[in-house]
């Protein structure tokens, strides 16, 4: 198998890969500016960032398969941030309360010859109406930190989700069906325990 590089510092992405038996040879987070471009749609933002991360890491590891990914939570055309403080997290949760939103997962895999293979996955998520107490309790647990849209579906926020249409793993941080297919096509497969 070729060397496999994960261009992400996300512990959730690493855990998801391990869940399907794929272990990166190296983790090389790619530091890119994640500021949305003027007028950039959420789906295009996710795709661009995944590509930027993969290309930056691939430039340093040209003989490897490199995976870059990004997750964007959007209400309509509005991109929700990775909340940096409780006030920002509260605003995100209040916006998501009682309504649907879309989680976009951008994935870019670059092969040793420099060819890029990209996928974009959209998952619809519907939140229940959140009481002020729901929001304050969630903020107190701290789980919202470093999460797109200020929530983690795999944690306590699971109790907020009325429904989901699409890839659950995409909402966690990596659409596994698409990633597994791309990696398998390039010789990266699950390893025996």
Topology:
Blueprint: E1 3-6, H1 11-19, E2 26-27, H2 42-60, E3 64-75, E4 78-80, H3 86-96, E5 100-110, E6 116-127, H4 132-141, E7 161-165, H5 168-172, H6 176-185
Parallel strand pairs: 1-2, 1-3
Antiparallel strand pairs: 3-4, 3-5, 5-6, 6-7
In short:
It is built from six helices and seven strands, in the order βαβαββαββαβαα.
Total beta strand runs: 7
The CATH architecture name reads Alpha-Beta Complex
Question: What is the straight-line distance between the termini?
Answer: 16 Å
Oligomer: single chain
Beta-strand percentage range: 25-35%
Shape: globular
Largest sheet: 7 strands, mixed
How many domain regions? 1
Give the averaged pLDDT, no decimals. 96
CATH structural class: Alpha Beta
Helix amount:
25-40%
How does this structure look, described?
The chain is of the alpha/beta class and 193 residues long. The protein has one domain (3-185): Maf protein (Alpha-Beta Complex). The protein has six helices and seven strands; from the N terminus they run βαβαββαββαβαα. Strand 1 (3-6), helix 1 and strand 2 form a beta-alpha-beta unit. The longest helix is centred in the N-terminal third of the chain and has 19 residues, at 42-60. It is globular, with a radius of gyration of 17 Å. The relative contact order is 0.19.
